[in-house]
Amino acid sequence: MTDKKKERINIHEYLAEFEDIPGTRVFTAQRARKGYWLNQFAMSLMKEENRQRFLADERAYLDEWDLSEEAKQAVLDRDYNRMIDCGGNIYFLSKLFSTDKKSFQFAAGSMTGMTQEEYAEMMLKGGRSPEGVRSIKEGR
Amino acid sequence: MARITAGITSSHIPALGAAIQTGKTGDDYWGPVFRGYEPIKQWIARPENMPDVVILVYNDHASAFDMNIIPTFAIGCAERFKPADEGWGPRPVPDVIGHPDLAWHIAQSLILDDFDMTIMNAMDVDHGCTVPLSMIFGEPSEWPCKVIPMPVNVVTYPPPSGRRCFALGDSIKAAVESFPEDLKVHVWGTGGMSHQLQGPRAGLINKEFDLNFIDRLINDPEELSKMPHIEYLRESGSEGIELVMWLIMRGALGDKVRDLYTFYHIPASNTALGALILQPEEIAGPPLEPRKVLSGASFAEA
User: Fold this and answer.
1) What is the ipTM of this complex?
2) How far apart are CA B255 and CA A6, in angstroms?
3) Nearest CA of chain B to the CA of A60: how many Å?
4) Which pTM value belongs to this model?
5) Catalytic site residue from B61, B99, B127, B186
C-alpha cells in the first residue's frame, strides 16, 4: 500500500485558470498538440542549411511541412500572435526570428500592438505593470 | 566528502550573450547590468569560493529537446556539452565540461530518492546554460570548473511544482554529500525574474513580486515553495514561471542561508534580472559591501 497524497490538484481547474489571464496563451498540452508541426518547423531552422533554404523560398520550404494554411501565412507575415494562436511556442519560434536576425525584444514588442520604440521605452520605464492584467474575471 | 558551498541565481537571457559578443557590456544600456555582476565575478574568483563543480539548473529553450521529448527533470552525465545553434550559430564560448562521476552518482541517488530523472549522455546546451557561465566567469578560453547541466521543463505545461523543485534541491544536497571525493559544489538556479515574452501582455514586470520572492527565497523558502503556478503566471508573467528553478537551488542549501549579495535590475531586454549569492549559514562568509544593489530606470525615478 502506497502512501496517499494528501491533496491533489484538480487538473480541470488548473487548466481553466490559465484562460483567465489577459493577453496570454499558456503553452498547454492542447496548444502543444495543435502546434506540433509549426514548432518542429521552427526547430528545423537550427541548421544553417535549412535557414538558407527557407530564406531562399519561404513558401516552398513551408510547403514541405504539414501546416495549416493559416499557420503558413502567419509565418510568412511574421505575425507572432497568430503563430501562437496556431499552437506555436515562443522558444520554438525564436528560431524563426533569430533566422531573421531579430531579438526577443523585437518579437515580444511586435505582439503588443506598440511600435518597437514605444515598447523599448515602456521597458526602460520599468515594464508593463501587472495592475489590471492579472485576471479577466476579477478585473484586477 | 563533497559539499554544497554556495547557491547562485542568475538571469540567462540571450541578449546578455549578444551584449558580450558585440562589445556592448559597458554602454549606457548594459553597463549597469555588467557592473552589477562584477562583485559576483570577483567573489567567485577567490580560490576559497571557486567551485570544483557547478550543478547548473536551467531550462532548455527548445534546443536539445524538441516537441518529441519533454523531460521534466534531466541531468547531463556526458563528458562534455557543446553550445547549441539556436538560429544564429552556436554562441562562441568554450564547450561545457561535465563531471560524469558526480553526475551519475547524483542521478542514481535522486532516482533512489524518488526523483525519476532523465539521464542525458549526449546533449547540446543553449543560452540557458552558457549565458550564466559567461556572466559569472567572463570570457575565458575554457570554463574554470566542471559543470553538470540540469535542464528543467518550464516550457510545456505543466512544469514541476515549486514544492517538487524545492524537494529536488534537498535530494541533490543529500546526493552531493554522499559523494566520497572532496569537492566544492555550487548549485545555480537560473532564469527569471518577472517577464513575459508573448501576447499583448508581453513586457510585464512586477518589481514588488520579485523583491518579495527574493526575500522569501532567503528567509522562508518552505512557504514560498507552495505558491501555485497560476500565481507566478498572473504576477510575474508567463515566462516568470522560470523562477521555480530557483527553488531547486534554495532546497540544496539547507534550512538557513546567508545572503551575501543581491543584485536586481530592470530592464534587461524584456526581463527583470536578479542575481544572488547565498551560502549555507554554517559555512557562510561575510556579506559583500554593498550587500544589495538595485539599479535600472525604475529605481532612478524612485
Assistant:
1) 0.94
2) 24
3) 19
4) 0.96
5) B127
